[in-house]
Every structure is written in C-alpha cells, then in structure tokens.
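User: quick one, sequence for these tokens?
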C-alpha cells in the first residue's frame, strides 16, 4: 500500500470537556497543551520542570501542572 500521507495520519477528535494528558514540560509540550486548551480540553501536564511558556497558560482553569516525573498511573 502506498504512503500517500507522507508518514502522517490525520485525526480529528472532539475534545471538549475531555481530559488530555501531556507528558513533558518543554516547548513542544507547551504548544501541545495550548492546542488542547484551544479545543476546550481539560489538560494535565506532568513533568519534573516546565519552560516559561507554561507561565502564559497557567491562568487557565482547565490546566493542571503536576511537577514530578511521569508514572504509568497518570493514564488512568
């Protein structure tokens, strides 16, 4: 089967009111968290440290920052 998508798989999700987990506190994680917040998801970000970009998102009630390493039970 030919790869017409260039290795990408398009996906559309209805995230309004849903919990979304982001693992990591870097620049990429901040962009992902911002996108999930824009989709009206409740976002939990787990990381031992966070880049300053998260400061701009911190006033959002739908965002929870958990300052510790990821553990598998975070998926529950």
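Assistant:
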């Amino acid at each position: 089967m030919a790869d017409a998508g260039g290795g990408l798989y398009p996906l559309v999700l209805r995230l309004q009111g849903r919990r979304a987990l982001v693992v990591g506190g870097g620049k990429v994680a901040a962009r992902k968290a911002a996108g999930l917040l824009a989709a009206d998801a409740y976002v939990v970000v787990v990381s031992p440290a966070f880049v300053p970009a998260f400061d701009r998102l911190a006033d959002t009630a739908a965002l929870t920052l958990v300052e510790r390493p990821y553990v598998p039970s975070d998926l529950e």
